Amino acid sequence: MYGEGDFFGQPVRLLRYQKQFIYWLYEYNPATGERRFREGMLEVPKGNGKTPLNGWVQLFDLLGPPLFGPKGSPVIPVAAASFEQADLLFGDMKHCCRESPTLRHHVDVYDTEILVRNGPGRAYRVAAVAGTNDGQRPSSLGADEIHEWIGPKERVHLVLANGLAKRANSMVLNTTTPGSDLDSMAGRKHLYGYRVNAGEIDDPRFLFVHYGVQDGAYDLEDEEQLRAAVLAANPAAGAFLRTDDVVARYYQIPEFEFRRYHLGQWTRADESWLPPGAWEACAGDVDLDPERPSYVAVDMAHKQDSVAVVVAQLGDDGKVRVRAKVWTPAKGQTIDVAAVDNHLRHLHRTLRVETVAYDPAYFQRSAEALADEGLPMAEFPQGAGHMVPACQDTYRAITGGTLVHGNDPVLTDHVLAAATRDTDRGWRLSKGKSKRHIDACIAMVMAVFLALPRIEHEEEIEPWFGYG
Questions:
Q1: Which pLDDT score is estimated for 269?
Q2: Which fold has domain 16-210?
Q3: How confident is the model over 150-194, as pLDDT tens digits?
Q4: Cα-trace Rg, the chain
Q5: What angle do CA 389, 390, 395 make, to 5 degrees?
Q6: Treating both helix axes as pointing N-terminal to C-terminal, what angle do 439-451 and 409-417 enclose, rounded to 10 degrees?
Q7: CATH hierarchy code of domain 280-451
Q8: Closest Cα to residue 291, out of 311, 315, 318, 309?
C-alpha cells in the first residue's frame, strides 16, 4: 500500500523501472543458489519513488518466502541520515503492514520497530545522526538518501554493513539522489559503480543503477529541451511524477540544484549559488525610509572572525533593499564588540527597527544588554530549520530582481564567496573551499527573510546502467 502522498492507501503498482530493478536485485547464482548481488545502489532523481521501493524490498526480506536458503531470524535496520528521512522510509513500511489485509495478521507494528508475530524477525528504524553500536547481525540493510551520510554518519553505514558479513545471503540496498561531493561515501560508491559497470573493476556482487542525463546533453534554456531532459532523467515522469511541476522548478531554484535533484547529475559543492550576473543585476540605490519597518540581522562568529550587520527594508515597489556594515579585525586583534553594539543602537534611533535578529550562540550577552535598553532583539538560531527557508527566499528575491543592494564591494565579496551545503531539510549557505568571509551574506539572508512577506512556497521536489 502507498504511504504518504497523492496515492495514500492505494495498492502499489510498480513502475517498469522498479520491476526491472527488483528483477536484477534478486538474481541468483544457479551454481550455488545464493544471491548474485550483496549490495545494490539505486541512484535516481527526486520524486521517483526510490524511498518507498527500498521499504518494500525490506518488507519482502522480512516477511517474504526464503529465496536463497533458510532465512533464520531476519534482522533489518532501516536507515537514513536524519530522523525525519528515516521516518519517511520506515513510515511507508509501517503503513504497508497496517493497511495490508495480509500483512497486518503477521506483524506487530510499533513506533520504531516492526516485529514478526509468533516468530523471529524484526525491522527497526535507524537515524545515522544518532550513531549506532557494533555487534548487530543484520540480514538486510535499507539505507536511504546516502548522499546525506557525510562525516561521522558514514561510520554508521560502515558499522551496519560490516554486520552483514555475519549472515549468509545478506544484502544492503542503498537508494539516493545524487549529491555534491564525489569524495563522500555516496560519491565514492557512484564512481565505483560506474567502474564496475564499465568492466574496469571485477565485482559481480555490486549492482549499480543510475537514472539521469549527462551535463550539457540538453539546452535547458530551451523549454522543449528542458522538458525532454526531465522526461529522459525521471523514470516516473508521466506516471506519478508531474512533469509540468518539475519543469517549473527550473525557474525557481538554482540551476545546479535542479540538475542534481531533477536531472540526476552530481554537482560540485563549491559551485556558485547564484546564476551568472544575477547579483550584479540587483545593484541600485539603497535609500532607507526612516518611517518604514526595517529588519536588522547580526552575524557574529568568533571574535577573531568578521562580524556583519545588515538592514533590510521592503519598499512600496515590492523590492527589499539591503545595506551592510562589516567589522574585520586586524591580524592578532579581536572584534570591537562595543562598536557593533553602538551601531545597533544607532540603527534603532534612526530607523523604525521592528526586529534585531541574532544567533544566540555568539551574541547572547550583548543581546540581553541591548534588549534591556529597549531594542527589539530576537533569537534566530542558524540551524537548518531557519536557514534553509531563509536562503531559498533570498535566492528567489535575487534571481527575481526583487532585491536591491548598493554595490558595496564587501557585501558583494561575501555573497559571491558563499557556497551551498546540503542538509536534511534542503540546501543552505556556508563557506566555500576558499574560506573567504561570508558573514555579511548570512546576515543579509536573515534580514531579507524577516523583511519579506511570508509566502507559502511549494516544497522542494524531492537509468539503467548509466545515463539515459
A1: 56
A2: Rossmann fold (3.40.50)
A3: 888 888 899 888 888 888 889 999 999 999 877 789 999 998 999
A4: 25
A5: 95
A6: 90
A7: 3.30.420.240
A8: 315
